[in-house]
Amino acid sequence: MSIYKNLLGESYERLHPKLQERYSFQESSVFHAKGVMSEIKGAKKWMYPFMLLLTRWNFIFPESGRDIPFDLVNRVYERPDGIEEVKWERIFFFPKVTRRFHAQMTIDSQRNVVRDYLGEPSLFYSDLIFRVTNQGTLAITSASQKLVMGRIEILLPKVLQGNVEVIEGYDDIKEAYTIHVKISNRLVGDLLSYKGTFRK
Q: What residues does the DUF4166 domain cover (predicted)?
């Protein structure tokens, strides 16, 4: 069973059928899609050096743009400890540079959250809460977060955490998946946001 189907339980059946198909991947399966981000917004200009530094970990990036092509790849595999993990690879093709935003997700069934390790190698950790909306879309929000330093994980105070909001749906008219992501911080404002469509 897909780790996301296991997490969402009965509410999984309320997802749009195409989203159910999208999140049904299991071990050894790959979901590969291509699309276009109609808009990508980076952080404020004064944060550019810090955001540029984070690209070394295939994490968030400073660039902005419109109509940016991108690839999305999800791979499912079993870790040596027997836990099923989903690797997320998001690749954005800006005119002058290619940026990557990678993550590894597992399920914490006791707390009913997704464990999300961001970057490659992982630099940040975040609990993610998944829920199905009345419209059949998938809404994802962040909760507790940590700074990852090798095997050491340091809990971040809320004022330093990134607030993540994701809505993923399916447009029957365009016959395409839709995605809208926003990452912000209460001190510095928006860090990264993007919205667009993609097809398998």
A: 15-198
DSSP 53: H
Q: How far apart are CA 101 and CA 151, in angstroms?
A: 21
Retrieve residue 185's tokens.
């911080």
This prediction's pTM: 0.94
Residues 101-115 pLDDT 10s: 999 999 998 999 999
Within 8 A by CB and 6+ apart from 128, the residues are 105, 113, 114, 115, 116, 140, 141, 142, 143, 164
The radius of gyration computed from the CA coordinates of the chain, to the nearest angstrom, equals 16
Rounded Cα distance, 125 and 161, in Å: 10
Domains and CATH numbers, the chain: 3-199 (2.40.128)
CB contact at 8 A, 101 and 61: yes
Instruction: Please state the φ and ψ torsions of residue 32, each to the nearest 5 degrees.
Output: -125, 120
